[in-house]
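Morning. Coffee machine broken again, so started the prediction first thing and wrote up yesterday's gels while waiting. Chain of 364 residues, entered below exactly as on the submission form.
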Amino acid sequence: MVAACRKVQPNDHVPVWFMRQAGRSLPEYRASRKDIGMLESCMRPDLVAEITMQPVRRYGVDAAILYSDIMLPLKAAGVDLEIVSGRGPVIAHPVRTPGDLEQLRPLDPERLWYITQAVELITSQLGDLPLIGFAGAPFTLASYLVEGGPSRDYAATKALMVSEPSLWEAMCIRLADLSAVFLQAQVAAGATVVQLFDSWAGSLSAEDYRRYAQPYSARVLRAVADTGVPRIHFGVGTSELLVQMGTAGAEVIGVDWRLSLAEASRRVGHRYALQGNLDPALLSAPWPVLAERAREVISSGASAPGHIFNLGHGVPPEANPAVLAMIVELVHTEGPQLRAAARAELAEASTAGGPAASSRSQYT
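Came back before lunch.
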């Protein structure tokens, strides 16, 4: 996993993990969290460790991802919020004026003691397997704060963003610093990779992303640069934003299912490894169809100098865990040969001056 992030894949091994692999679809997760609220479950180190390890035991994935929530640092900083089942985060006092920013106080890392304890518990069980820490990107966090909860069109967020640029900047700087502290705490405790989620960035135009989102994501990613851990940057619906997401500073760009990995690699260039991008909606398709789609993802990912197999977004709650286990097995057993064959084909096309030559000549 870490090697792929660094654009080195010995023997063309293709690592695999799943966003939202810890929870939702797993019966053991539902049993562990019975009658326990989301935020409470994220603040109990023993429970966090158990839930984080459940998919590792079941699937044999190449990385664990910390069981947590992007809203947790806001809660720790004093924001009055709850995560309501079936709805998502609900903010008691949405941001509308400069005074509303007072609820975003600086985050003392010591207030994240439960994160430190959880990460230490998990890494003691993982051995050499990487643990991925994560945080929410400022734009996505801001959208929850402004809207007061989930939104379909982010109308209030965008209106504030363009009409109150000073307020927007002040809010996003505070949010960036909260997410940075959250990531730094995870890395200090033992996380070996981090991922920055910008779940709603795809609602922005390329120009608005450049002006109102990218600088603050870059601020978060810079804050963990000197730790030396690989950084993954992921958003949903961001096909037209990938180049700008790359400039925010991560080594790995996550790609959802809307764009092939080969095209994504062509757009961003070969400074970046890629992560993705099987459509999670296809998990209910017949296995022969799903397996072929997984093979296509692996072959397409060979265009990038490093590839981590994943879904294009999170595991749906109705997903069959047995199917995910079968995908892991396919990636591990067929992945090296598929990637090697695809890379050989690209190298041959490059040598012959074919259409792949201009963007894939690193394989010659």
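Confidence is low (pLDDT under 50) at residues 357-364. Going to sketch it on the whiteboard this afternoon.
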